[in-house]
Design a protein that fits this description.
This protein has 2 domains: 25-153, Beta-Lactamase (2-Layer Sandwich); 217-362, Heat Shock Protein 90. The protein contains 10 helices and 15 strands. The protein has helices at 25-40, 65-69, 73-81, 127-186, 192-213, 226-236, 238-244, 261-278, 309-314, 330-340, and strands at residues 3-8, 45-52, 57-63, 94-99, 102-108, 116-121, 219-220, 222-225, 247-249, 256-259, 284-291, 295-301, 345-349, 355-362, 370-371. The longest helix is centred in the middle third of the chain and has 60 residues, at 127-186. The chain is elongated and about 100 Å long.
């Protein structure tokens, strides 16, 4: 039997489509499933209707055009109206219409919109045939849901890339000026405290430059001192810590580890910035690690309000932010960096209050090895 595919607007669909399009991967998958049904039910008229995430319109795949053309106009109008469609359980086959010797069955693919398999046959379906069709419908429903999720992820990635391009264009010139003036001040200031502030500014500017230029570059794994990387991040955030009178506790003993030092510092920057924001004044942030032969487990805990159930589920999702002024990228960036190091990151609420972010880093990464690149949005930003 010949299949016909049509794009149809968001309205009741006509039984006989009026256009033929080349197959997309999704359409090819749908055709394959219909052919599975036809292999056990030859001569059946089948229509598959679904919402295409690729084209934002409904798609209709029709097999057995001759079968549908034999229906009288009243039957065609009834089936085209979709008035028979109800919010039935996904994958549950139900008879919706009988005309003479022709039986029509519908199997919903969604509970919220008219997506379905519509079958016309001259014989009653057996229990085995019904189960087979329901299995195919469940497979189609799952595949459509997966394709939609991937489409949403692609759109989110495109938004990140567009935002990166805009930020890069807007900040290069003013950042270059700040760097020049900072270097000029460093050449004239000798007092220790002002020089320390200027050096922190200079370090932050260098971080920004590296963020802007970081486009699909591989991580460079070298041996670093984990305690020193954390110390650099704390020092850079010292003005904010002083303002809120927050104390950060962490192990000072050197701990060699093979990582991309600059990237790992971005993880600490994001997690500490988040912890400082939610910590009460005069609070404490505890940083610790547990060492095993295979990996190091790093924990950063605060005394804030903790996270809601929704936060726990979505906190690493790009653009999801708990802060009114947040971009929702900081924790997503941290997750990408840890995953690129073949580690895992998670968050829980502490029994005594506050949140605890934990991540692992393998100890066996070879020195100076190059691991797959990651695409990190410009700038360190907290969630």
């Amino acid at each position: 039997m010949r299949a016909v595919v049509s794009s149809i607007p968001l309205r009741p669909a006509s039984i006989v489509p009026d256009a033929v399009e080349s197959d997309s991967p999704l359409q090819s998958f749908c055709r394959l499933q219909i052919e599975q049904i036809l292999s056990i039910l030859p001569g059946t008229g089948i229509r598959l209707v679904y919402q295409s995430p690729e084209q934002s319109k409904r798609q209709s795949v029709v097999y057995g055009r001759e079968f549908w053309s034999l229906l009288d106009s009243e039957a065609q109008l009834f089936l085209a109206s979709e008035s028979w469609w109800i919010k039935n359980s996904v994958g549950r086959l139900k008879k919706v219409f009988t005309e003479s010797r022709q039986q029509f069955y519908a199997c919903p693919l969604s509970q919220t919109k008219p997506e379905y398999l519509l079958l016309g046959t001259t014989k009653l379906l057996t229990a085995h045939q019904k189960r087979f069709i329901e299995n195919v419908a469940n497979l189609l429903s799952h595949h459509l849901s997966t394709v939609r999720d991937l489409s949403i992820q692609r759109q989110a990635q495109q938004q990140i890339e567009q935002r990166n391009q805009h930020i890069e264009h807007q900040v290069k010139s003013p950042i270059a000026l700040i760097q020049i003036y900072t270097q000029m001040l460093l050449s004239t200031v000798s007092e220790e405290q002002p020089r320390s502030y200027l050096e922190s500014i200079q370090s932050s500017i260098q971080d920004i430059h590296r963020h802007i230029s970081l486009k699909q570059k591989p991580l460079r794994i070298e041996q670093h001192d984990l305690s020193e990387i954390l110390s650099q991040s704390i020092k850079q955030l010292e003005p904010w810590l002083t303002e809120k009178q927050i104390q950060v506790n962490y192990p000072h003993a050197p701990l060699p580890i093979n990582v991309d030092g600059w990237q790992l510092k971005q993880v600490f920057d994001n997690l500490l910035t988040n912890a400082i924001y939610y910590s009460p004044e005069s609070g404490t942030i505890d940083c610790s690690w547990e060492i095993s032969p295979q990996e190091i487990l790093i924990k950063i805990s605060d005394q804030g309000t903790g996270l809601s159930e929704a936060d726990l589920e979505q906190v690493f999702t790009p653009f999801y932010s708990r802060r009114p002024e947040g971009t929702g990228l900081g924790l997503s960036i941290a997750q990408k960096i840890i995953q690129a190091h073949h580690g895992q990151i998670s968050v829980t609420n502490r029994p005594t209050g506050g949140a605890q972010f934990s991540f692992t880093l393998p100890r066996q990464q070879p020195k100076l090895s190059i691991v797959p690149s990651i695409e990190v949005p410009s700038f360190t930003s907290s969630t």
